[in-house]
Input
Amino acid sequence: MEMTWRWIRLEGYKVSKSGGLPRRSREEGFCNYFSSNGGTEMKHALAVTLSVAFALGAFALDGNITPWSGETATNILRLVSYNVHHCAGADKKLDFQRVADVIMREKPDFVGLNEVDCCTKRSGNVDEAKELGRITGLDATFAKAIPLQGGSYGNAVLSCDEPLSVERIPLPGKEPRVLLLCEFKDFWFGTAHLDFGSHQLPSVEIIRGIVGEKSKAKPVFLAGDWNATPKSKTLAAMKDFMTVVSKENCRTYHGFKNHTAKDEYCIDYISVDSVHAAKLKVNEAHVTSDIVTSDHNPIVVSVALER
Output
């Protein structure tokens, strides 16, 4: 019997029907969580909860138990896109734990991150993707866009399972950009951070070609800071082949100086290729209210994808 992407959720961590937490959660996040949050009593509570769940043959999604009746026809996915501003907040404080806390509050399965540093001077020579993966218990994949301060800068994907394959596709820009795509069993998930101005439409055409090829076999989810407002030509071009499933009527970028309407744009999105959009149901979508941790708000969607 084939397993599906549905998880028991307990205190923000995920346990699969087929036996255990994803790799990083099992080895790092899960152990760290219990070592600092109640030890033996919570371990006993977890054991009882899992015993009951598996005895009933059930899954839980955000606390709702549904019977396990063999192979299900739907994948339930919780997706996040977040430009983390190299983990430096409005207070100019570099704080990886604070960024990880924002991510964990949303209990995501897959996260697309933009403006991620890897071993740069300004970030204390920390591999930010790896560190956020360690704290959240999610697998981390990084894609370099440019060299920076002795390290590099680009995008990352945090995921509840290791990718089957990874592709890093350069995108044009005055500041070069990168498209990061990670392949999983039933779909691709990726993130892109587009440059400003005249480089955007050429970037969209590159993405169109990649998505067109990948979507022949399985759905493609693409998230990211596209630096394009809802009425822009860039977003219209993206919508030729992608269907936006995140909210478009809320700001996702607020900046740090003056929180005026002029500076408050919706420029971050989560989308699915239009070939598979009809098989997708959006259960919930929101933009968080956090304006301290980064200059962007995390955006979140929960979707059901027919297999």
Observations:
- Residues 7-67 form one domain.
- Residues 72 and 100 are 31 Å apart (CA to CA).
- The helical segments are 23-36, 40-56, 96-105, 128-136, 200-214, 233-238.
- The chain has two domains: 7-67, 74-306.
